[in-house]
Design goal:
binds zinc ion
């Protein structure tokens, strides 16, 4: 392999021996002289694609660093997911997706959520009734936080599956651009990570702000709303906005699909519609009522809409 191959133009094919393929469609790019895939139209940079072939393209993702720096790359990937623009301009199609570690992100992110949820519940109890009381009520006898955590976990996993199904609506566009399922999976997993991780981060901020306000202003009047009540509505709104942004930028910046924003918005809309239908079905067939803990999960995201659904159906 000659040193010439690292220049900005195509490598000297007579001495370049590595296999070099289009990151989007897998087409063999050998012997090409123009930096554009004749199969799918992907415009690439010779520098980047040669670095990828030599396995010298630096990736920030957990997928590529789970073996050498697992914790740092996991939290790094979760942190980047909260800044979708940064994430999708750093995660490149040239980084070959590794399905195993990519899917491992899902249980790890759920574990992070579980730790947050139990710590949050414990902290509030400590705040209101003291450390020993909080410790006493954190045992397995007091089941509510644990049951709720199980429901939330199932709910988040259902959202992830629904997102993957929703994106399949674009299968014609995806097939036209020769986009492979592994790349779609990366957009789905990392956007879903943004949704769950943002709930954790905003939840922690709200916990601290809520406790400080409570200390400053005392308990709310009987029947009145606690201070900064609006913030509890802001939490799902911010998470959803981030979710839409991540899917859209994944389409637009990472997969370079046209109409990325519209595509992202429709995919997320379909996702929530699917989850709502699932919860409605579950409520009618299993509980025979919409006033059940599963349907209340939707209430956490769409307070007004669920009240409207309840008034229509019951
Ligand atoms: Zn291609």
């Amino acid at each position: 392999m000659s040193e010439q191959s690292s220049c900005a133009s195509h490598p000297d094919w007579s001495s370049f021996t590595l296999e070099i393929r289009c990151p989007r469609c897998g087409y063999d790019l050998r012997m090409l002289t123009v930096a554009r895939c004749p199969e799918c139209g992907w415009r690439f940079s010779w520098d980047v694609i040669i670095a990828a072939a030599k396995q010298r393209l630096e990736s920030p993702l957990f997928e590529d660093h789970w073996h050498d720096r697992p914790l740092r790359s996991f939290f790094g990937t979760v942190g980047r997911s909260l800044l979708p623009w940064r994430l999708w301009s750093q995660a490149r199609l040239e980084h070959v997706p590794h399905v195993g570690p990519l899917l491992t992100m899902v249980p790890l992110v759920m574990l992070l959520y579980a730790v947050y949820w139990l710590a949050n519940t414990f902290a509030w109890r400590w705040f209101f009734s003291g450390f020993w009381s909080a410790l006493r009520y954190s045992g397995p006898i007091y089941r509510w936080p644990y049951e709720n955590l199980v429901r939330k976990t199932v709910f988040f996993l259902a959202v992830g599956c629904a997102l993957w199904l929703s994106v399949q609506v674009y299968r014609h566009t995806l097939a036209k651009h020769r986009i492979r399922q592994v790349h779609i999976l990366r957009v789905v997993v990392l956007s879903w990570t943004a949704l769950v991780a943002s709930r954790v981060v905003i939840g922690l901020v709200l916990m601290v702000v809520g406790m400080v306000l409570r200390k400053l202003t005392g308990p709310p009047p009987l029947g009145g709303r606690p201070p900064a009540y609006w913030m509890w509505y802001a939490q799902p709104a911010i998470s959803l906005a981030l979710f839409v942004a991540s899917v859209s930028l994944g389409f637009r910046v990472y997969l370079r699909l046209p109409h990325g924003w519209a595509g992202g918005l429709i995919a997320v809309g379909l996702t929530w519609a699917m989850v709502a239908v699932l919860l409605l079905g579950l409520s009618f067939y299993y509980f025979d009522s919409l006033k059940n803990p599963w349907f209340s999960l939707l209430e956490l995201w769409w307070p007004g809409v669920t009240r409207w659904i309840i008034s229509v159906f019951q």
